[in-house]
Amino acid sequence: MHIFITGVAGFLGSHLADYYLEKNFKVSGNDNLIGGYKDNVDDRVNFYNFDCEDFSKMNELLKGVDVVVHAAAFAHEGLSVFSPHLICKNIISGSTSVFSAAANNKVKRIVFCSSMARYGSIEPPFKENDTPNPIDPYGIAKLAAEKILINICEVHDIEYNIAVPHNIIGNKQRYDDPFRNVASIMINLILQNKQPIIYGDGEQKRSFSDIADCIFCIDKLVRNSKIKSEIVNIGPDDNYISINELYKIISNKLKFNREPRYFPDRTNEVKFANCSAEKSKKILGYKKIKNIEESIDDIITYIKNRGVKEFSYDYDLEIFNDKTPDTWKKKIF
């Protein structure tokens, strides 16, 4: 089987590539290297450095591909409120380019990695049959990309599945991005003896999911012929903790005794967000392999081995006003 993974240098994409290389599949992929690291990519991957929005290249490289896993994204929910054009262009145009090229090349199946942001402000735990109500441009764009995928696949007779991972953590995750990846940001700061930053009161809650718990579920969406046309949450029902609690776990492990710095709430941030895992348990055999303590240990080891980094503001803010976080305007990280 020839699998093409977009965002193959990113966190999720590189782990998927490693998984399929171990199964001796042919693995190809692209990445623009804005959100990932080149050294995440195994030398055995046929790697192409270009953006998904380049339809011409995508169309050329999907010849002979069996399955496309579309994992590439500017996955910046909070940033999307202040850079909506950047994020929506990437998510919607990039996804449409991938799906169109796949259809043109008669790819057998597309697996799209969506986001929990699709659910927005509805009552948790979020279920796949709930009516989504995304409240930021990123979530809106992800939901739009899902609808475009379904339309293209139904018209052109392509199988598809939609994975909805949520708050994945683990090694290979970018940790010098000031706009996302809260656990990695905290660890990178503490290892530099800097105080982590928490928005609002820190009582917003999330369910964190180890990367190891996600890969085998996505694999079933890729390879199980009986599972198709499905939208499936991938992640735990538990591990539901506040950002304050996350900070305590990390600071205790690193023996960091200083308090975090608190800044005002970010605009349009969902306070409580967790998903039901019932469907993934039923059709994918989802189970939690690692608890959050083990996930944090993996990230700490990864960052220590790779070396701490200064934060890189690779994305331009498009909207500056009194709602734009000072942490980003003034580059406080």
Summarize the structure in words.
The protein has eleven helices and 14 strands. It is α/β, with parallel strands linked by helices and 333 residues long. It folds into two domains: 2-169 and 209-234, Rossmann fold; 182-206 and 238-273 and 291-328, Alpha-Beta Complex (UDP-galactose 4-epimerase, domain 1), CATH 3.90.25.10. The strands form four sheets. It has a seven-stranded parallel beta sheet, sandwiched between helices. Strands 12-9-14 form a three-stranded mixed beta sheet. Strands 7-10 form a two-stranded parallel sheet. Helix 2 (55-61) runs parallel beside helix 4 and helix 6 packs parallel to helix 8. The longest helix is centred in the first third of the chain and has 21 residues, at 84-104.
Gist?
The protein is an alpha/beta fold. The chain is built from eleven helices and 14 strands. The strands form four sheets. A seven-stranded parallel beta sheet has the order 3-2-1-4-5-6-11, with helices on both faces. It has a three-stranded mixed beta sheet with strand order 12-9-14. Strands 7-10 form a two-stranded parallel sheet.
CATH class of the largest domain: Alpha Beta
Helix content: 25-40%
* CATH H-level homologous superfamily name of the largest domain: NAD(P)-binding Rossmann-like Domain
Query: Main sheet?
Result: 7 strands, parallel
The radius of gyration is 19 Å
Which class of secondary structure composition applies to the elements? alpha/beta
**N-to-C SSE string, H for helix and E for strand:** EHEEHEHHEHEEHEEEHEEHEEHHH
Q: What do the pLDDT scores average to?
A: 97
Number of helices: 11
Named CATH topology of the largest domain: Rossmann fold
Portion in beta strands: 15-25%
